[in-house]
Design goal:
The chain has helices at about 1-20, 25-50, 70-90, 100-120, 125-140, 145-180, 185-190, 195-215, 225-230, 230-255, 260-285, 290-315, 320-355, 360-365, 370-385, 390-410, 415-445, 450-455, 465-480, 480-495, 505-530, 545-575, 580-610, 625-670, and strands at about 50-55, 65, 530-535, 535. With about 675 residues, the chain is mainly alpha-helical.
Length: about 675
C-alpha cells in the first residue's frame, strides 16, 4: 500500500489541486505543499518498511513495483527534490498566478510517474511511466509560452516520442529473445537465450530510448535548449531527476541483461565519453547561466554513463574490486548530481526572480553582496568540480579508479582506456573552469554600469527560499565525508566491499588535483583571454555546429522527402510501378498532407483552449491601423508550431517504420 500511495496518490492530488485550487492561489499552494510533503513522508516510510506491489491485468503482464536499496534511496531523493522546489516555487512564481493551476497539476503527475519508474520491477512498467512523464514534463518546458520555449518544448517532445518508439522496439526484441522483462528473472533468461544477437539489438534500442531522456549524445539536443526556457524550479527537476529516469532504465537493463557483454559495454562507454567531453565544451563556451548548467548536466550524465560502461567491462573481465569502484561511483554520482543541480538551478532561479535575465554580461557582479546565495552557489560549484571534502570528489574518484582498474584488467583495451582516462580528467578540469567562470562573473566581478544598483539590496530571497537553497547546499559538505558516502553506496549496490574504499590517498588526490589544475589553466587562457573580448563574454561555439538545426531538421524536413519524391519520380518515369500503384502513392501522399494539416490545427485549438494562451494583443488595443501588426504577431507565434508539429509527425512515422521493419525481419526473414 505504501508503494501504491507513492506512485498513484500524486495523480489523484493533481486532479484535486486543479479543481480545488483553481482561482484560489493560497489553497492551490497549500495543496501542492501538502502533496509533496506527504510524498516525502511516504518515501521515508518505504525506506524503513520496504515492500512490493503487483497490479495484474494491465498491459498484459501487469504493473510491478519493488523497493530495494537503490530504488528506495532514489525514491527519497526524488521526493526531497520535489519538496524543496515546491517551497522555492512559492516565491519564484509570486508574480505569476494565472497559469499555475495546470503547471502544478502536471508537476504532481510527473512526480507520480517518476516514482513509478524508480520503483518499477520490470522494463514494461518502467516504459509505461517513462512515457507518461515525457508528456507531463513537456508542459514545464513550454510554460513561459515564448517562441523559444515553444520551439524547445517541441524539440523535447519529439526526442521523447522517437525515443519511446525505439525503446518499445527494444522491449519487443528483448521479450521475444528472453521471454521476460522482469528485472529479477531477466539475467537468467538472457543467459539461457539462444538468440544473443536479438538480445544485444534490443538492449541497444533500450539504450537509445532511455538515452533520449538522459541527454546522451547524439540525442542530447533538447537538453541545452529546454533548461534555459523552463522555470528554474522545473529546470532543477529536469536536470536533477528526469535525466536520472533515463539513466535508471539504462542501468537496470545493463545490470540485469547485459552485465558481461563487452560489445554493449564498449557502446555505453564510448557514448558516455563523447557525452562527457562534448557537454563540458558546450558549457565552457556558453554565455547564458542556465544553458551553462544545462550543458553541465549533459557532461555529468556522460560521467555516469562512463561508469556504467566500465562496470560492464570489468564484470566481463571478472575484476570484483573494479566493479565495486565503477558501480559505486555510478550510483553515487547519480545522487550527487541530482542534489548539486537542485542547489545550482535554484540559485539561478534567484537571479531570474530579481533580474529576469540570464546572459553573463547582464548578471555580472549582481551577487557580490548576496552572502547566502554566494555560499550556496560556491558549495554547489565545489561539489560538481570534484574538489576534495565535497560530495562530487568521492563519486568522481570512484569512477576514475574504475577506469584505472580497467586499464590493467580489460585485455586489449589498455590504450583506449588510457585515452578515456585523460578525457575524463580533462572533462573534470573543464567542469571546474566553467563553474569558476560562473562564480567569478556573478559573485566577484564588478558591473561598471549597474554595480551600485546591484549592491543596494543584499537580500535577494525571502526567508523560506534562503533556507531551502542554503540548506540544500549544505548537503555538498555532509555527503562529502567518505564514511557517509561509502555507506550510501553499499546500501544502493548491496556490495559491502565499497566500505573499504579510502578516498584521501595520494593517488586519488592526485587525480583530483590534475583536473583542478587543468581547469584553472583553461579558465585563465581560454575564458579570460579568448572568451573575454572588449570586456564582454563571447560565445565561441559556432552556431552551424548545432546538431538539431544542422543535421536533424534538414534530414527529416528536406532530404528524406526529397529522396522519396525523386524515387517516386524515377519509378514513374521507368514504369517500375503499375498505374494503380502510382495512384495509391499519390493518394497516400495527399492523405498524409491532410492529416498533417489537421493535426496542426488540433494542436492550435488545444493551445487556444486547454493551454489557455494569452492573446497576443488585447481587444481594446486593436485598431484599424494595428490589425496588420496583430496579424503578423499571430502568424509568427503560430509558425513554430506548424513547423514543429509536422517535424514531430515525421519523426513519429520514422519510429513506426523502424518498429515495423524489426517485426517484419523477425516474422518474415527469420
Amino acid at each position: 500500500m505504501i508503494i501504491a500511495g507513492i506512485v498513484f496518490l500524486p495523480f489523484v492530488l493533481a486532479v484535486g489541486l486543479y479543481f480545488l485550487g483553481k482561482g484560489n492561489p493560497k489553497r492551490r499552494d497549500m495543496i501542492m505543499l501538502f502533496s509533496t510533503a506527504a510524498e516525502a513522508a511516504l518515501c521515508l516510510w518505504l525506506f524503513s518498511a520496504g515492500g512490493s506491489l503487483s497490479i495484474p491485468g494491465i498491459l498484459g503482464d501487469g504493473l510491478h513495483f519493488k523497493a530495494t536499496g537503490f530504488r528506495e534511496v532514489y525514491a527519497v531523493v526524488t521526493a526531497f527534490m520535489w519538496l524543496m522546489t515546491t517551497l522555492f516555487s512559492r516565491e519564484y512564481f509570486l508574480h505569476e498566478q494565472e497559469e499555475l493551476d495546470h503547471y502544478y497539476a502536471f508537476v504532481l503527475m510527473t512526480l507520480g510517474a517518476t516514482e513509478g519508474v524508480m520503483l518499477s520491477a520490470d522494463l514494461m512498467t518502467s516504459f509505461t511511466f517513462f512515457e507518461i512523464l515525457s508528456f507531463t514534463s513537456f508542459t514545464w518546458v513550454i510554460h513561459e509560452q515564448t517562441r523559444d520555449a515553444v520551439k524547445a518544448g517541441y524539440t523535447y517532445l519529439f526526442i521523447a516520442v522517437i525515443g519511446g518508439l525505439v525503446l518499445f522496439m527494444g522491449l519487443v526484441l528483448l521479450k521475444h529473445a528472453a521471454g521476460t522483462l522482469s528485472y529479477d528473472s531477466l539475467k537468467a533468461a538472457v543467459e539461457a537465450s539462444e538468440n544473443k544477437g536479438s538480445v544485444l539489438a534490443g538492449a541497444l534500442c533500450v539504450l537509445f530510448g532511455f538515452g533520449c531522456k538522459a541527454g546522451m549524445f547524439p540525442v542530447h539536443v533538447w537538453l541545452p535548449k529546454a533548461h534555459p526556457v523552463a522555470p528554474s524550479p522545473a529546470s532543477a527537476l529536469l536536470s536533477g531527476i528526469l535525466t536520472k529516469v533515463g539513466i535508471y532504465g539504462i542501468l537496470m537493463t545493463t545490470l540485469h541483461a547485459m552485465a558481461d557483454n563487452r560489445a554493449y559495454g564498449l557502446a555505453v562507454l564510448l557514448l558516455g565519453t563523447v557525452t562527457m567531453a562534448l557537454g563540458a565544451v558546450l558549457a565552457l563556451f556558453s554565455v547564458n547561466l542556465k544553458r551553462t548548467l544545462a550543458c553541465s548536466s549533459m557532461s555529468q550524465i556522460g560521467f555516469i554513463l562512463t561508469g556504467i560502461g566500465m562496470t560492464v567491462l570489468l564484470t566481463e573481465a571478472g575484476e570484483s574490486e573494479g566493479i565495486a569502484l565503477a558501480f559505486g561511483g555510478t550510483v553515487l554520482h547519480m545522487v550527487n548530481h541530482s542534489l548539486i543541480k537542485l542547489t545550482l538551478f535554484m540559485a539561478a532561479g534567484a537571479v531570474v526572480m530579481n533580474l529576469g535575465v540570464l546572459t553573463l554580461d547582464d548578471i555580472r557582479g549582481w551577487g557580490r553582496k548576496k552572502l547566502f546565495l554566494k555560499i550556496a552557489f560556491a558549495l554547489g560549484a565545489l561539489g560538481i568540480s570534484g574538489v576534495p571534502m565535497f560530495n562530487g570528489y568521492i563519486s568522481k574518484t570512484l569512477l576514475h579508479e574504475g577506469i584505472v582498474e580497467g586499464i590493467h584488467a580489460c585485455a586489449g583495451l589498455g590504450i583506449m582506456l588510457r585515452l578515456i582516462e585523460w578525457i575524463f580528467l580533462i572533462s573534470g578540469g573543464l567542469t571546474f573552469a566553467y563553474m569558476l567562470k560562473l562564480f567569478i562573473c556573478i559573485f566577484i566581478e564588478k558591473n561598471v554600469s549597474k554595480q551600485d544598483a546591484f549592491d543596494k539590496d543584499s537580500s535577494c530571497m525571502n526567508i523560506t527560499s534562503t533556507l531551502v537553497v542554503t540548506g540544500s547546499s549544505l548537503l555538498m559538505v555532509i555527503l562529502g565525508q567518505p564514511g557517509i558516502m561509502t555507506r550510501i553506496a553499499a546500501l544502493m549496490t548491496g556490495d559491502q566491499e565499497i566500505l573499504e574504499f579510502r578516498a584521501f590517498t595520494w593517488t586519488n588526490l592526485k587525480g583530483s588535483m590534475t583536473s583542478l589544475i587543468i581547469g584553472g589553466l583553461v579558465y585563465v587562457y581560454v575564458v579570460r583571454r579568448r572568451m573575454m573580448q572588449n570586456d564582454s563574454y563571447v560565445n565561441l561555439w559556432p552556431e552551424k555546429l548545432d546538431l538539431e538545426d544542422a543535421v536533424y531538421r534538414p534530414v527529416l524536413t528536406q532530404w528524406i522527402p526529397d529522396f522519396f519524391g525523386d524515387l517516386a519520380a524515377l519509378f514513374g518515369e521507368n514504369r517500375f510501378l503499375t498505374p494503380l500503384a502510382v495512384k495509391v502513392m499519390l493518394a497516400l501522399t495527399f492523405i498524409g498532407r491532410v492529416l498533417s494539416s489537421s493535426l496542426d490545427w488540433v494542436i492550435v485549438i488545444i493551445r487556444r483552449t486547454v493551454m489557455r494562451e494569452k492573446p497576443v494583443v488585447s481587444r481594446d488595443r486593436i485598431t484599424r491601423r494595428s490589425l496588420p501588426v496583430v496579424y503578423e504577431e499571430v502568424r509568427e507565434a503560430d509558425a513554430p508550431l506548424f513547423r514543429s508539429f509536422s517535424f514531430a509527425l515525421m519523426m513519429t512515422c520514422i519510429g513506426i517504420l523502424l518498429i515495423l521493419g524489426v517485426l517484419v525481419y523477425y516474422n518474415v526473414i527469420m
